[in-house]
Amino acid sequence: MNKEIIDRISYYTRKVAEKSSVNLAEKHPKWFTYRNQRLMAYKRLMHNQINKAGY
Fold first, then answer.
1. What is the pLDDT, as a whole number, of residue 10?
2. Most exposed of 14, 26, 38, 52 (fewest Cβ within 10 Å)?
């Protein structure tokens, strides 16, 4: 499935905002542990798509 660049940017910014609003002093679910790695991988793919499109 190919997403438009604007969709990828809006998804990424929404997820980063969610991540930054979490209190790190509290206990979190297991899925939260690797959230940063997943966000950074998504960011790399997003930037690759932007570069290929020539923006």
1. 92
2. 26
Q: How many CB atoms lie within 10 A of CB 12?
A: 16
Q: Are 48 and 2 in contact (CB under 8 A)?
A: no
Read off the pTM: 0.70
> How far is CA 31 from each of CA 6, 18, 28, 34, 51, rounded to the nearest angstrom?
26, 14, 8, 6, 30
**Structure tokens that stand for 23 in this block:** 């209190």
What is the residue range of 53's domain? 1-13+30-55
* Count of the separate structural domains present in the chain: 1
